[in-house]
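Possible race condition, two jobs.
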Amino acid sequence: MENQEVKLNTENAQITDFTNFDDQAQREREQQALNKKIEEDKLLPPDPEAVLEVRHLKKHFVLKKTLLGKPLATLKAVDDISFVVKQGETLGIVGESGCGKTTMGRTVLKLHQPTGGQIFFNGEEITNYKSRHMRSLRKEMQIVFQDPYSSLPPRSTVGGILAEPVLVHKIVPPSEVKDYVLEIMEQCGLRDYYYERYPHEFSGGQRQRICIARALTVNPKLIICDEPVSALDVSIQAQILNLLKRIQKERKLTYLFISHDLSVVKHISDKIGVMYLGSMVEFGNSDEIFANPMHPYTHALFSAVPNPDPNEKVNRVILKGDIPSPSNPPMGCKFHTRCPKAMEICKHIAPEYKDYGNEHYVACHYCQMQEK
């Protein structure tokens, strides 16, 4: 119905009759508006205070091709993500398993080649850098993987694991490598006699300390922590988090901290981004997000955090169904199939990602209705 199309946008949610509404035409209009916004943002200079700036990042995986190589089915693991992280800050990324957190982190490091968007590191655009160009930046951008058991080579000693990046990037002269590695080990709470031992001789917490020490050996500016404490006991988690905070303060590091544990993210993060099905649905300062969560998905995540007070009643929000397939996302708002606040407009029109004050960004029709 062409007469309705002029009225149907995210700024005017008054329409209630979606009979015969052309969803495909609406999706094309939304894509055209997004493409226009991307082209406009390309003209903007990078943030001079940002260590890492990401604009409209996309990472799509082709699932099926024709005989001529044309994509037939695509999985949108990361779909239009933007954020800025300044020196010394920690950005926490939370969301369910499968929402694209890890893929986003690896795409930022160029371990996956981005499908679209821009990545700026220290004001320098690295989006189209090839492997040989990224080599010089590897020592400034490091990652701590989720599983400390599989991320360490089993046939190398701790000393060999930590000395390799020092030698490859020529951080110190070869004669000083061992002393340099022992100093890094001491900073990470590892004894000097661990130098000749192998990874299988250590506990999970000690292995994660080795992984952190390996990232620190090249003096990075940015470390992406991909669920670094999810495989550890609670008491060990606290030790690793305190270690990360202490090292950040001493070295003025910047963290991109990926986790599904909101209590951990609250402890370490300055800013928080909530991801769902490859997109950012809420973003803001940590205190603001925890004091005033706005998106229904964020409410559901917060309600799942265990409460230490057994006498305090918690209104648990139970989401129905499973997360939809990223290869076939629903029309309109991606969360509407599970949202307890979903309205008819949510099924047809994607919500606007807008600032509700204090740099608190939310993409939700319900929040826009509440504001009015």
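Job #2 (started ~2 s after job #1):
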Amino acid sequence: MLKARRQRQKTKKLLDTEAKQAKRLAKEALAGPVVKKEKVKKEKVKKEKVAAEKGATPKVKKVKLTKEELGKQDAKKNSAAGKK
């Protein structure tokens, strides 16, 4: 009894997988041939290294803080001074 049950389960599983595969193939056939996209190669841009002058330091731009950020800094200073 058990042997027959296992055999039936096995055949049922095989039939289900075959049915799924047939359905998938039918769907693909309906969709038509697959058109592959052509790959476009990007041109590589070489970065040129500029020799820095001797003794020169790189220039750093200073960013002005907004009013909100200035207010936050002032609040921190005031709270730190009040604790001491």
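The two ends are 88 Å apart (CA to CA).
Logs attached separately.
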